[in-house]
Fold:
Amino acid sequence: MDDEQLPRQEPEDPRPQRVPAFNLPPVILASLALLIAVFALMNLPSWSDQTLNWIYFTFSFIPARYAFPLSQQGLEWLWTPVTYSLLHGGIEHIVFNSLWLMVFAAPVARRIGTARYVIFWFLSSAASAFMHAALYWGDQTLLIGASGVVSALMGAACRFAFPAMDGRRVSMRQAHLNPRLSILGSLRSRTVVAYIVMWIAGNALVAFGITLVGDSAQPVAWDAHIGGFLFGFLLFALFDRQPRMEEQEAIPLDE
Structure:
């Protein structure tokens, strides 16, 4: 009779597991790649000033377009409420927006999925643009940049990504599994309120011409930031895909 042999147990690897430096959802990497590609394309030295002016006119958001009958102009009014969010005026502009995008877009994208994230981008971009147009109706200045969308993602994150009110502490990587707070519930969270107060204070400084980060020579559309934030904070429930109950129960606590 053969002797029974117990299955051999492989020794555990004592080396720590490597964690990717940029563990971002694919749709966020695609967003960053698109912004960088557009910025690189816009800064090719071969463009003439005439061509650049045409590009900015064709793809930037201009409030004056909506002060005139749409039938008497081209179709730029149709796509510019979205395409302006892909354009950036300088390296500091795109770097600043990209960094904040990586922080706040990742948990939102993990929670609502790729398709809803793309729809969220389109609608929050338009909401930011028309908030700007409402305050500067008929103005002929150009609005560009993803700051309005980033602000909307910040507002959406306030509804779930901060520490839950029941005392659980989770990492930012697992924040998308938190339960969604109601609007009033979010405003009862000291963490959320403190963040909103600091965010409003920063935009108030910008409104008075005090720029803390970035190129102070470039005007900042603080009103578009507020429009985007309100869109994300107030309307996030329309895009939310509540995590499954078993996923919520499986969240480990950070010690």
User: Anything to note?
Assistant: Confidence is low (pLDDT under 50) at residues 1-7, 12-21, 244-255. The domain at 26-250 is CATH 1.20.1540.10 (Rhomboid-like fold).
